[in-house]
Write a structure and sequence with these properties.
It is built from 16 helices and no strands. With 401 residues, it is mainly alpha-helical. The protein is globular, with a radius of gyration of 20 Å.
């Protein structure tokens, strides 16, 4: 790949994607292990689902603060510190002998993960040329998709013999690699620290009055709500008769994520030509079709349905990430932090709501819950477009017609 004079040498979609992969392996790695952990600790579907929810809740709570730290200290410095500190909860989880200890380790992981999430998008928008930004951003999102798959796959394969503890030692090694890749990123040349408390308050107040940003945050809440609801509960459906899948095969089921690695970068030209709003609505339709297929009995059909359902989520996330950076002109890390607060708040809510829905009505109840979330996103799209037409306040690229 050739580099322009405005592009930091050493930055490439593959490099950025690898960082996203290694980071996201931390978030969902235990998902393939949930039936095993439920039996070992003798907890319900809803309770064991909090191992994902505790991480996503911590990500949500820490994201705004992470944005402030990245805006004050620098993007690269914050990312390196986060990957280094992630080694500690991996050790704690690998040696956990109680459910509460494992939950605490997962919560600690969640507090550190957003330091990278909010810093890297701001790093890209500031340190790379406009023509390259969409490629790098969609590369990062594709990397997070791959990380979601690899985390689940590796943990499932490592724990297939019945011992889940080594899965967290594997995460420790991946975080060491993540630290090395961030260290290799070019130094920042356009970063200007924002350490004034007054300026921070002004920036936060402006973001909270920004209807474009707030609408994208609400969309983000619904996007991750769907993903976590589906993949927290589908292992319980497939671990039960007539499928009876163990941790290893359940980990392989998450190979449907690999479709997102292809689809997400392919979304970039559609974002450029049709706009993020079109992509969001198309994503909702694709995901709803996939959710409908998962109600059928044959396992191959369920897998196809899961692939479509998750592909819709990945497309929607790429569009939403694009809209976050379009919606602000300063305090970009803080804006990313607010988006992640809403996005991962949706994941935390789904980890409980989907477990309760599954316990109450099985898989069809979970599908209904996800369909309602997508319907709310589509309703938001219609509302924002009408508001644009009536007030002319928002950037027309948000949910364009």
């Amino acid at each position: 790949m050739t580099t322009s004079s405005n592009e930091p040498s050493g930055t490439s979609p593959l490099h950025i994607a690898a960082i996203g992969t290694l980071l996201l392996m931390n978030v969902y790695a235990p998902q393939a292990l949930l039936p095993l952990l439920s039996r070992e600790f003798q907890v319900s579907t809803a309770q064991v689902g909090t191992l994902i929810g505790s991480t996503t809740l911590a990500i949500a709570l820490a994201s705004p603060v992470s944005g402030l730290l990245a805006d004050a200290l620098g993007r690269k410095r914050v990312m390196m510190g986060a990957f280094a500190l992630l080694l500690l909860p991996c050790l704690l989880a690998a040696n956990a002998d109680t459910f509460s200890t494992l939950s605490a380790a997962r919560f600690l992981q969640g507090l550190l993960i957003p330091l990278v999430m909010v810093a890297i998008t701001a790093y890209l928008v500031e340190e790379t040329p406009r023509w390259q930004y969409n490629r790098l951003l969609t590369g990062y999102v594709a990397g997070t998709v791959l990380g979601g798959f690899l985390g689940r796959l590796i943990s499932g394969l490592v724990a297939h013999g019945g011992d889940w503890h080594p899965a967290f030692y594997a995460l420790l090694l991946t975080n060491l690699l993540g630290l090395a890749l961030v260290w290799r990123l070019p130094a920042e040349t356009h970063f200007h620290p924002q350490r004034s408390r007054w300026r921070t308050r002004v920036t936060l107040a402006a973001h909270l009055r920004n209807p474009q940003l707030l609408s994208v945050c609400l969309a983000g809440f619904l996007i991750l709500f769907v993903l976590v609801a589906v993949f927290n509960t589908v292992p319980f459906r497939l671990a039960a008769p007539p499928y009876n899948l163990g941790p290893g095969p359940l980990g392989l089921i998450f190979a449907v994520y690999l479709l997102g690695v292809v689809v997400t970068p392919a979304t970039s030209p559609v974002l450029q030509s049709r706009g993020p709003g079109f992509v969001l609505r198309a994503a909702a339709g694709i995901s709803l079709l996939g959710l409908g297929l998962t109600l059928l009995a044959p396992l191959p059909v369920i897998v196809v349905g899961l692939a479509l359902a998750s592909t819709g989520v990945f497309m929607a996330q790429a569009a939403a990430q694009n809209l976050v950076q379009q919606s602000v002109h300063s305090g970009r890390s803080l804006a990313g932090g607010l988006y992640n607060f809403a996005y991962y708040g949706g994941g935390a809510a789904a980890s409980v709501a989907a477990g309760l829905a599954f316990d109450a009505g099985g898989w069809p109840r979970v599908v209904l819950l996800c369909a309602v979330a997508w319907a709310l996103l589509l309703a938001l799209s219609v509302w924002v477009r009408h508001r644009n037409a009536g007030h002319g306040e928002l950037d027309p690229r948000v949910f364009p017609g």
